[in-house]
Each structure stands twice: as structure tokens, then as C-alpha cells.
Amino acid sequence: MKDLKIAVIGYGYWGPNLVRNFTNLENSTVSHVVDESPDRLEKVKKLYPSINVTSSLTEILENPEIDCIIIATPISTHYDIAKKALEHNKHVLVEKPMTNSVKHAKELIELSKKKKKVLMVDHTYLYTGAIQKIKKIIDKNMIGEIQYIDSTRINLGLFQPDVNVLWDLAAHDISICSYLMNENPISVQAVGKSHTDSDFEDIAYLTLHFKSKKIIHFNCSWISPVKIRYMLIGGNKKMIIFNDLETTEKVKIYDTKYKTKTNPKNDRQILADYRVGDIFIPKLTTREGLSSMVEDFVSAIIDKTKPISNYDIGLQVVKILEAAQRSITNQGKEVKI
Amino acid sequence: MKDLKIAVIGYGYWGPNLVRNFTNLENSTVSHVVDESPDRLEKVKKLYPSINVTSSLTEILENPEIDCIIIATPISTHYDIAKKALEHNKHVLVEKPMTNSVKHAKELIELSKKKKKVLMVDHTYLYTGAIQKIKKIIDKNMIGEIQYIDSTRINLGLFQPDVNVLWDLAAHDISICSYLMNENPISVQAVGKSHTDSDFEDIAYLTLHFKSKKIIHFNCSWISPVKIRYMLIGGNKKMIIFNDLETTEKVKIYDTKYKTKTNPKNDRQILADYRVGDIFIPKLTTREGLSSMVEDFVSAIIDKTKPISNYDIGLQVVKILEAAQRSITNQGKEVKI
Amino acid sequence: MKDLKIAVIGYGYWGPNLVRNFTNLENSTVSHVVDESPDRLEKVKKLYPSINVTSSLTEILENPEIDCIIIATPISTHYDIAKKALEHNKHVLVEKPMTNSVKHAKELIELSKKKKKVLMVDHTYLYTGAIQKIKKIIDKNMIGEIQYIDSTRINLGLFQPDVNVLWDLAAHDISICSYLMNENPISVQAVGKSHTDSDFEDIAYLTLHFKSKKIIHFNCSWISPVKIRYMLIGGNKKMIIFNDLETTEKVKIYDTKYKTKTNPKNDRQILADYRVGDIFIPKLTTREGLSSMVEDFVSAIIDKTKPISNYDIGLQVVKILEAAQRSITNQGKEVKI
Amino acid sequence: MKDLKIAVIGYGYWGPNLVRNFTNLENSTVSHVVDESPDRLEKVKKLYPSINVTSSLTEILENPEIDCIIIATPISTHYDIAKKALEHNKHVLVEKPMTNSVKHAKELIELSKKKKKVLMVDHTYLYTGAIQKIKKIIDKNMIGEIQYIDSTRINLGLFQPDVNVLWDLAAHDISICSYLMNENPISVQAVGKSHTDSDFEDIAYLTLHFKSKKIIHFNCSWISPVKIRYMLIGGNKKMIIFNDLETTEKVKIYDTKYKTKTNPKNDRQILADYRVGDIFIPKLTTREGLSSMVEDFVSAIIDKTKPISNYDIGLQVVKILEAAQRSITNQGKEVKI
Questions:
Q1: What residue in B sits closest to A271 (Cα-Cα)?
Q2: Which among A83, C151, D84, D271 would be 20 to 30 A from D27, CA to CA?
Q3: How much is the pLDDT for B271?
Q4: Which chains touch C (3 or more CB pairs under 8 A)?
Q5: Percent of chain C clearing pLDDT 70 (strictly above)
């Protein structure tokens, strides 16, 4: 079978990783890289002399040889490029989040259905060894029903040019929660603040409310002196901590439980009962998540499989982010989804 | 000078620490311990044969020899005991938070003024080497103006019998922020949830809003598999991390800065500039905070000094907690203070 | 049954812990504390008004009411005090290491046999939840045969007045290894150096050689800027790490294996095969080791049980330390045991 | 000026890093890669289509266009390849350690002098931001005179095929100490053991003795369940810890001192005095050490500068390793250098 011909649009922060992974993949060849910066294009040429470089997106769209467009440009440009790509009958893989509005995300999904082309969002985290292992643990009911999720994702920079910190960092958390849970939130609340000349919040807190009364909470910052990637997943049987900065102990499963009840004789009195038990740290695959992601994209095209990071998850992420944005603008008011 | 005679009410979790510290202090003698549990009183007798034990509060109140009443009972009982103690002309030290309502806190303050007796709240954290060092660093303007504070204070249990997790854990954070900052919040928002049969939230998130647009955020939980005590204090010159679980590196000062501005020619474009520099870890005193706290209480009586953990901070904590409670009940609505 | 009457000799660093634990124990009463320093005796009186204090050891030895002598004085004094105590028909618990010479240790053991009195050494580590758990894991053959043990035990101070760092710190490691293994070393090598005016080495490295060709290595220092208590125990099936400074993760069991063989066709070529697997962190009891140790001592007297930290282990520790001393003096020469 | 033409011999573990760094460097072009494995050569072709690949070393040696030979093959082959390369008038960069015998190392140095070609050893560690910073700190006398160095360098695998763990791991430590100190050891002692079918020790301990009575100690293992890279450098004014596995806190400077003296009145009594102070964590450059190393090599050729990782350090490393080997064979006997 002929290799899929891949064009990568944008060679900034993430583009080089995409080029490297598609290059290492069977069944695909990166034939073109598009970027406005001649410096970046020169870098491509130095590392990959066989890849063609250009600053013209049109040239790529009109090239019938190219099967897939990989979009690694700023978020506000996703919709335009993806739309054009689908209209030109290309398969599309777009950086997370899919678009900066629900309206646009839905339009792209409709267009991809109409054109029968794959539209996939690069929520790489879902493909990491850690999240794949956690998904299996939850699906096997090892931790029981999820009671809460709490994530802290903070670091210094990189400030995004066209969105706030939630669109950048919480996008990861939302995709992970959507993937792990069988339930979607019914409303969100968010507060945030910009500490610079920019309008885009660099610190923000997001709470998701569920019909089951669960709450999920994300703490995001671009202006923390330290980097933290720390997620707690509390089940009613066990609890998980996912610390992505750990090298060999990313996922820890705590045999920890709690139970309290009010004393039937004295409803003011709480009887507490909790147990701390063993901790288990499963071995994770060391395969790069991005490598599985690009493979999943190519499978979706060749084998017509439904990708893990499919457009439903992509849309769900944009829905929550858009609602969160509205909540921030309204001083943390609850916004239905 | 004659030693102050001290009676400690409540010998549960914190009472033993208070007895030990007042016993080691000059100028004070613990003469009585009051508790309803004979078992606990027996423990007192075994360790301190010279201390009198009783289950009768009245006996203590009516004993004219006793100068000070130290209240280490559940929060819902603070007001009653403190009121009676002041009415019987005793100095009062009450566990944090002072009361479970602003109304009661104000009443106690008025009564202490009228009776000319010391009323102090045991916000022990303010006396630790870490917070004393941070206070000095901030007052010397070493980190510039505070931009944000973010605190995570989570662990498994101990569930409080008569209040939710904010009244228990956020009480620490609020007292610390009140002490460190020159500004009080104008409104709060909080969400929380109980995961047990009890009505009291065991997870809760609290955001404080300031006139200066600052936000401060607290993450509190009684049902985390791990214990975390982690506070970020971001200044516009430097940043501090206070990790209370570290043995020798509790306070770290990061020479970290960020600045972004929109490009004047293209207001869509953000120019980001951040710097990561050296880290400095100051040596802290190893004196137990509680030891300084009881000394401050005794000084307030003998030398008429204003204690660090005075009733103004005590009242401020109750104000914020009461507002937070109302916000939780109203699904996270903003509540003015 | 009448309580055992206990006299504690020495109220410096460790004495207070012994008094506290014997006080909390059933079947025993601390009746006397002996120390040369009036300040220390005053401290005893303040905390325990019912305990008699004195600076006269003779008074204690000649008091027929006293059943047991607990020796918490500098190492060079152990032999004299223990000998007198046994001669006066007292049971003896002596701080580790038992004596500073093998000759003296053997003498005490003979005397205790002759007098039919318990002689036990306080190797507290053996009673901690961590070592008890590790012992069980090894005895159940979960890690297979022990291949190596490697321990780092370093900190700043406390310099001992009459022995070098091995007698102080390696004493712990040697007692642990003696307890965990079924084999005694046949020779030792040690190097060390004093970095002060004192003759006693403050850094030293000790290697134990076994008939089975195993090697065990201890790294000890009093002049490290950080405190480390880190022991690796490599089995041929699994490996254990015991990090005593961890709060909740002291003992980790690694499902890690390695195997290499030379290529039969080309004996220069090594075929390596290693596997990194899951990690398991067992829950440990939180009971203080010292509390179990004093209970074991009292049981040895009342129930005639053989204590875990018996004089055989005590003697073994002194044998190795004495040999290590000789090796240091001889520039690291191998010394047979 | 024309670029230097570089041939890299060996494309196993380290070769790819060398190719990448020489490719990114100005003034140099990787023209050839030599390896016996067709698979590896195919990998080169995929990533760098412009590089020529071959399995014939002779072809490279006889190619007059090639200026430099970079040797990244097993240690036992270094001497042969380097000798031929120098004889063919190539500059040589050889992986650490330079050779497996002092005799061969000296021969290569003589040959390089005679041929007036650069001979350099890739002790990459010397070029890292951490070691460069530590070197500056020491040279500025900030920690005073070095009292001791203690390094732990352990992990699981990679077993080397033709040398023991000291030749692999201690080579790093020896090069670092040679670079940081103004004094060479006068003798060494080492013990080690193989736990596999191989003859090569996989655990070994090495002690260096100095005329000044200093001791330096290295703990190396290929069969540890965890990776540790931890070096303590104790000065008589301050102390440094270099933890290479830390992301942002690799180098910590402790304002820690100790002093003891014997009591002049009672020479049995030790008066100890130690102080724990602030900790300072300097910002390090994030430049890859290997990138500076290849630049230093090219400078040595073009600008005739003396490289940091020069053949004197390279020879010193081999001297100590050879002596250590002899000590292991003789049960840890002291071996003069």
C-alpha cells in the first residue's frame, strides 16, 4: 500500500514533535511542512532534507497528492485551516483544542461527516501509558465509582497568544476526564485573572458539576514558579494519584477508604472510619503517547477505526471551555452546558 | 510574680499539646484539665500527677484561682464556653476558628473589651518559623506586591464532627493570608461536596476576591489519599513556595518573574517574557509554633501586648468562613463580605 | 502481679525516650532516674514528679526493690555499669552497641547466664514496622536470596564523645543485617577519616565479605549537609528499598530482575536481560519501635522469651565493629572475624 | 572556512547523540557513520539522508576528506581505532574512558603529539551546566577547601559488554573529581562483585586516598532497582550536593559547617559545634553538555585551544580505573598510583 502523504502546518512548539512521529511511523510520509517563518523552514530542511517546505497553505490544499493535513498553529486559526482542508478532501488532525467555539467545532464535525474524511483532535495525553493504565483500572472497577477528580496543572509560561490558560492547560484535564468518566458535566463555574497587560487569564480555576452531584476541579496557571502536573482520582474503593512529572512512579493506586455516618442516636455526632492501606505502582509502557496518537490517526484513515481522541471528545472539550469562558466573564456564575 | 493559673477545657486531639506547652512555659501553671471522658482524664493524671482533673466546667468557672481558660473543644461549643469564661472574668484562648458565626465572634470581642480580659484565637500557624520568615520577607518588600496566593491543604480525615472541611482546614489558610496581606477580600465564592452520610462537605474550594482584582484560592479536602500542605505566594518580583511537609526546605524563594504585553502594532499578538532564576531556602527557627503562641498569650495578659493571633484576625477568619458557607449553599454564588 | 521496677541510667539524648516508653508500658514502673547533671534531673522531676532522681549509681545498685537497670550512657561506660548491675542481680537493657570490645561483651553474656538475668541490647530498629515487615517479606522468600545490601546513613552530627561514626551509625545497619540474614560475614574492610581535632572518624565506609561471596556495604557520616537513611536490599527475585525518612512510603518492593550471561559462541559478548516491573508499598504499623522493644524486654523477664534484640545479635554487632576499627587503623586491610 | 568533515564510528547508545550534536554545530558536518549493523545504518539514513553510511572503517581512514574520527564503540576497541585514526592523520574524539589500559592511553597521547592532531576524550559531564557551576563555586573559594567527595551512581543496567561497572560509571565520577580538585590521589582501594554469569563486577565501591589524607568514595551499581546520581562535596566552609536527577534543583549549596575539638581539660570529651544555615540553588544553563563538548572539540582543532576534557584528564581516569581493577582482584588491597 502507498504511504499516506502528510503535510504539517505550523512548525513552532509542537510541530517538530508531530513531524518526528509521523516520520517514524509506517504507512505515512511527511511530504510537506508549512510555516510563515523562513527560519523554521530552514530548520526543517537541515533535519529532514527530503521534506518540502513552503509558506503557502494554498499550495498544500491544492496538491492532490497530499492525503492529510496536520494543524499545529495557534488555536484561533484551527477552524479556518481545518475547514479548508476538509473542503479539499483532506483528512485532518488538529491540535487541541479543536476550535475556539462550539459553533465552529460542530461545523467541522458536520463537514467531516459529509466529506467522509477523518477529523481528529490531538489530545495526546489520552495515549500516554499513564492514562491508558488508569482507564483500564477504572474500567475493571478496581477503584469503584469515581467520587471526585482534582487536578493541578501549573508552570511558568508558555503564554498562549490567543487564548487563556484554561484553553491551553485545562484542555488536557477535560479531555482526560471525558475519556475516563461515563458522565458529562451539566454545568461549570470558573474564575480567573490576568496578571499582565494581556486580557487572557494566566491563572484560572474551573469546577465541573455533575447530575450525580460529583465535582471535578482544575487548577491552572502559567505563572507558577514550579511545574506541577498532579491529578487525584478518588473512587469509593480506592484512589489514584497521577503525577506526570514522576519518572517511574507516575501512577499510584492507594488502597484508601473513608466512611462516615452520623450517629443514629445523636445526629450531631459524626462517626468517622477511614483506612490507609498498601500502595501499588504499576509499570507503564514507556512508549511516547504522541507515537500512539499518530498511529491511531493513520488507523482511523486506513482501517476506518474510531480513534480514542475522536471528535466527540474534541467537541466536549470545546463545550466546557466555552462555558468556562462565559463563567469567568460573569464572575464565576454557574453556566449550564 | 505569681504564675498564671491555667485551665484547659478539652483533652482530645489538640488539648494535650496545649497542656504540654503551657506546662513548659514560665509564668504559667496548668492547674486543671476539664473533659467529659474519664479515660482522657486518667491519661492526664498519668502524665501530670500534679494537674487536677474534672468533668465540671462550672467548677472551673467558679474557681477564683483560675486566671485563664483554654478552649480546645469542638467548634460549636466555643461560643458558650468562651462567653461564660469571660463573664467569670477569665482570660480566654480559644481554638481556631473562634466561633461558628460572625455574630457570636463579635459578641465575644465586645464582652472581652467590656471585661478587659484577653480574648485570643489559637491560629498556631502564624507563629511557626515558616510564616514568621515569610512575613518578614514580604514586609521587607523582597517579593514585591503579592499577585496571588494558592493553597492546597488536603489529607485523609480527621473529619470534624460539627463543621465542614473549610472551617477546619481553610481556617489555617485564611488566618495566614490575613496576617500576610494588607488587604481584606470583598467577596468569596465556594463550592463543596460531602461524599459521606454527613452533611458537612469533605471537599471544598474557596476563592477570595479583592478590590485590587487579586484572587486567592484554597483547595481543601479530608478525603485525599495523601497529605499535602502546599502554598504558593506569587509576588511581582519574586515568588515563595511554602511546603509545610518538607523538613528542611519548608520555604523556598524563587527569583522568578514574568511579563507579557500585547504587541502595540498587533494587539492579537502577545509578547511574553519570563525569567527563572536562583532559588533561596532560608534557615528557619525550629521552635514549635505552639510554644510561641502560648507565650504570646501570656504576654498579652502580663505585658498588655497585642498578640499576633488577635481577635481581629480571628473575626476575619469567621467572616470569610461564614460567607463561604453561604456561597456553598447557593451553588457557588459570589457572597459579599 | 507486681510491676517491674525500672531504673534508667543516663537522661541525655535517648534516656527520655526510654523513660516515656517504660512509663506507658503495663507491668513496669520507672522508679528511678540516675544522671550526673542536676539540670537533667530537674527536667525529670518536672515531667514525672513521681520518679525518684539521684546522681548515685551505687544507691540504685544497692536498692533491692529495683529489678531492671536501663543503661543509656556513653558507650565506653556500658561495660562497667552493666557488669555491676548483673552482679547486683538486676536485669539489664543496654543502649547499642553493647560494649566497645568483644571481650567485654562476652564477659557480660557469661555473667548474665550465670546470674540468670536478662541481658538485652537496645537495637530499636529491629522493632520498627519497616524492619518487621522486611523480615517477613524475606522469610516468605518473596525477594528470593539476598544478593547485596547497601546502606547510606549520613547526617550532620551528633558527634559521639567516645567512639567513631561506625560505632554510632553502622551499629544500626549491622544489627539490621544480622537480623535479616542467615549468614555472618567472614571478614570486613573499612576506611574512615576524621575531619576535626578529634581522633574519631566522622566519615567511614564499611564492607562486609561473606563466604557466599556476597558483599554488604555501609556508608556512614556525621558531616553530611543532609540526612539520609537509605538501604537497598537486592534479592535475586525482587528488590527492596527502605527509606526511613519517608513518611508513608518507607518500604518499597520492586519487581525488578536482571540476568546476564556470556554468549556461548563468543565469550567476550555479554547478553543482558533485565526487567523493571510494578512497585508495591506495603502499609506498615505506626507503632513506635521503641515501644515494642521495651515490651520485648519485659516479656523476656516475665515470660522467659528470647528477645528479638538478644545478646547474640548484640555480640555480633560488637565483633564487626571491633574488626572494622582494626581495618581502619590498618588502612583498610581485610580483617577476619 | 570549510566545515570539518566528521565520521562517527559506532551508532549504538551514544553515537546518535554525537551525530545529532555535530549536525547542529557550526563549522562541522557529519559526512559518514560507520557501524557493523545494517539496521542501525538504515536508521541513520532515515533520519539523515545526507550522511553516508558504511560498515568499513578502512574506507573512512583512507578517505582524505575526513578530518575527524569520533569513536563511540565498546571500550576495548578504543585503542585500535584511535591509533589507526591518528596514524591516518585524523583528529580523534573518543568515548570515555579513553582506553582500557594506561599503557595504551599513553601511547595514544604520544602519537597525537607526534602527529600534531587533537586527541580528546568525551567526558561529557564536565561540560554540563551543573559541573561548570560547581567548578566556578569551588574556584571562587565559596565552599573553602574540599574535605570529602562522596558519590552514588547506581541504576539498573546497561551492562557493558567488556568492562566492569567502575569503567562505566565511576569513569564519570573520576573525571569530575579530577576536574574539580587540584590534587591527584596517591592510592586507591576497591571491592566489587559480579552477580551474574559474567566476570565483570556489577557492583563496586572505590575509595581514593590523597596525600592530604582526604578520602573520596564512589558507589557504583548496575543492579539497583532505582536510578541515583547523587554527589556530596564537603568543603570546610560550605557543602554542595549535586543531584543530577533533579530537574531544577541539581546543585544545592548548603551553608553548613561543623567543628569539634577535644576538651583541653578532658581529652576524652569532645566539644561539638555545628551549624545548619541557608540553602542556595543557583540557576544553571540549560544547554546540553554534549553540545558544549563537541564545540570544545572543534575549537581545539580550529583555534588550537586546550579542551576542558583533555587527554590529561583522560589519562588520569584510566590510571585510577586500572589501579582500582588491580585492587578488586586483590581483595581490596591498597594500590599506589
A1: B161
A2: D84
A3: 67
A4: A, B, D
A5: 96
Pairwise CA distance, residues C321 & D118, whole Å: 51
Cβ(A220)–Cβ(A193) below 8 Å: no
β-partners of residue B276 are B256
The answer to whether C249 contacts A279, with C-beta atoms less than 8 Å apart, is: yes
Do A69 and A297 touch, CB atoms closer than 8 A?
A: no
- Would you say how long chain B is, in residues? 337
Q: Which chains touch B (3 or more CB pairs under 8 A)?
A: A, C, D
How buried is residue B286: exposed, middle or buried, by Cβ count under 10 Å (0-12/13-18/19+)?
A: exposed
pLDDT digit string, tens, across residues A266-288 = 655 666 677 789 999 999 998 99
pLDDT tens track for C6-33:
999 999 989 999 999 999 898 999 999 9
- What distances in angstroms separate CA A157 from CA A123, A170, A227, A251, one per listed residue? 20, 14, 10, 26
Distance of alpha carbon C171 from alpha carbon C165, whole angstroms = 9
Query: For residue B326, what is the enclosing H or E element?
Result: helix B311-329
Partners of residue D281 in chain B, C-beta under 8 Å: 278-281
B141 Ramachandran zone, left/alpha/beta (phi>0; psi -120 to 50): left
Strand-by-strand arrangement of the A52-54 sheet: A52-54, A28-34, A4-9, A68-71, A91-95, A119-122
If interface means Cβ-Cβ distance under 8 Å, which residues of chain C face chain B?
23, 46-47, 49-50, 226-227, 245, 247-248
β partners of residue B94? B71, B121
Task: Name the amino acid, one letter, at C93.
Answer: L
Secondary structure (H, E, C), chain A: CCCEEEEEECCCCCHHHHHHHHHHCCCEEEEEEECCCHHHHHHHHHHCCCCEEECCHHHHHCCCCCCEEEECCCHHHHHHHHHHHHHCCCEEEEECCCCCCHHHHHHHHHHHHHHCCCEEEECHHHHCHHHHHHHHHHHCCCCCCEEEEEEEEEEECCCCCCCCHHHHHHHHHHHHHHHHCCCCCCEEEEEEECCCCCCCCCEEEEEEECCCCCEEEEEEECEEEEEEEEEEEEECCCEEEEECCCCCCCEEEEEEEEEEEEECCEEEEEEEEEEEEEEEECCCCCCCHHHHHHHHHHHHHHCCCCCCCCHHHHHHHHHHHHHHHHHHHCCCCCEEC
Q: What are phi and psi of D316, to 5 degrees?
A: -55, -40
pLDDT for residue D268 is more than 80: no
| pLDDT class of C268 with cuts at 50, 70, 90 | low
In the beta sheet, which residues pair with residue D122?
D95
Residues of A in contact with B37 (CB under 8 A): none
D276 with B255: Cβ contact below 8 A: no
Sign, CA dihedral A9-A12-A16-A18, equals: negative
CA distance A152 to A229: 6
The pLDDT assigned to D270 comes to 63
Rounded average pLDDT over A259-269: 65
Among A273, C129, A253, C287, which residue's Cα sits nearest to residue B156? A273
Rounded to a whole number of angstroms, the CA Rg of chain C reads 22
* Cα D106–chain centre separation: 18
Which residues from chain C sit within 8 angstroms of residue A250, using beta carbons?
Answer: none
By DSSP bridging, strand D251-263 and strand D119-122 are unpaired
Residues of A in contact with C248 (CB under 8 A): 276, 279
- Cβ-based neighbours of C263, under 8 Å, separated by 6 or more: C269, C270, C271
Strands A223-235 and A239-243, sheet pairing: antiparallel
How far separated are the first and last CA of chain D, in Å rounded? 44
